[in-house]
Amino acid sequence: MAAKDAAMFRARVSVTAIQLLINMEMKPCLSFYSKLPSLQQLSVRWKSGVRPAPFLTATPVRALIDEQISIRGSFLPPHSPITLSARMHSDEGDLWESFAHFNTSASGTFSSTNDHSVGGSYLGCEPMGLFWGMEPAPGSREGLRLRKRNVEAPYVVRISLLEGHVSPSEDQTTELAAVNAERWYLSPGVKRIDTLQNGIVGALFLPPGPGPFPAMLDLWGMGGGLQEYRASLLASKGFASLSLAYIGHKDLPGPPNRVNVGDSYFKAAFQLLQDHPQVISDRVGIIGLSFGCYVTLRIATRTGVKPACLVCINGPVGSTVTLSDSEGRTEIFDSYQKYWTYDDQGYVIFKEVSLPANLPPDSIVELEKLDCPLMYIVGEDDLSASSIENADMIEETLRSAGKPHLFTRLSYPGAGHLIEPPYSPNARASLWSVKPKKLITLWGGHPAPHAAAQEDAWEKVLNFLNANLRR
Asked: Is 417 marked active-site?
């Protein structure tokens, strides 16, 4: 078979089977491929001749976002440079990509799990570096941040094997083999239910089976909207999860740039989850990031509900933004802008806004009233919140109240504000607002240490939830 007749297929077949196909001197036959519906593991490009052409495997090709994928290349020239490239589109249509340079072994193989990248988007032995090392492709819109909007569909990542040490953006690259990998936040059998009852705006995720299940109320920050990807992943781990919108959503009352709900709203959301027939009512926790951390602490100490545990990620103990009062009025303290700082590019840094000393005293949560275990996660390079100082205040208050046993701190050097489920790329900076003027904010974090923090923190969060909600 001539080189120009090369063909590609994916198959769960052995190397021996591939060799037999090569030796048959057969021409590509599309009807043959159509009879192999279950062939999903590896992508092969083969050519005739003595030596089989390179092929690439990704195992598994379909996995949850927090699961590792092993990528291996074989039938390559020994001790030769090759490039592994990954490309995918976000739900908004933006192209994200990464690449890594490897040198093949004496047997003409390489593995992303065991071998070192010597150049590209990351360096060293980082089994998932190709995924957390992704960045917007050259020429993309400014200020992008990768967030899954539709959790009922996967990210589809095209992984390519290229000849030599190259950049995928170069015009002259030779693709030797390729495979598509699916990255999911939602495992099979998880149910998604829109929640629009009693004024509550959210999305409920239920694990497979009849339950009842332990549960989590999931709160994001002042970026607003309804963010579902963490809640859907928690449901994939066996926790019923309600992702709650409380600012910047079309179904919420009032101006979209203000928190137009109050304590009664969050209490009602917690009770909605607690009263669900498939939820164990006394095993409901809360997780919050950024401003959601403040709301998490406030729910646990002011609303009369009794969460079983709390997880707070890089957030304050008080707020310059008030929640809606009993008459639905809100207020934003304009004075907090005096604590904004800017870097050389004009990017805004919010960190000093949440220093405990800069917070309105009457907004600070009465932490001594806390009666359940709290895990607080700190990114030591957080440029959006004064996480270290807030963690210190929580720890000292609980110690003084005789409750030091309730507090667990995880602290990560080099990690930024946006500590999310693992293997997702960190945005050190991203677009914050376009009106009344365009603002890009700095979140902080450096790629490799931030990725390590996300992986370690997620494992410890799941262990913490299992210990406190499955007792």
From this structure: yes
Please report the sign of the dihedral spanned by the C-alpha atoms of residue 183, residue 157, residue 192, residue 252: positive
Q: Mean per-residue pLDDT for 86-103?
A: 97
Identify the three-state secondary structure at position 445.
Answer: coil
**For residues 411-431, b (16+ Cβ closer than 10 Å) or e, as one string?**
ebebbbbbbbbbbbbbbbbbb
CB contact burial 276-312 (16+ within 10 A = b; e otherwise)? beebbeebbbbbbbbbbbbbbbbbbeebebebbbbbb
Q: Which of 43, 417, 430, 450 is catalytic?
A: 417
Cβ–Cβ < 8 Å for 137, 169: yes
**DSSP structure string for 261-290:** --HHHHHHHHHHHHT-TTEEEEEEEEEEET
* 352-367 confidence digits (pLDDT tens): 999 999 999 999 999 9
User: What average pLDDT does this structure show over 195-200?
Assistant: 87
For residue 349, the SS3 value is strand
| Residue that is written with structure tokens 């957390």 in the block | 132
Single out the catalytic residue among 112, 382, 387, 424.
382
290 is catalytic: yes
With residue 469 as reference, give the H or E element that holds it: helix 447-469
The first and second tokens of residue 407, run together, are 């507090």
**pLDDT above 90 as % of the chain:** 76
What pTM did the predictor assign?
0.87
| DSSP state for residue 362 in the 8-state scheme | G
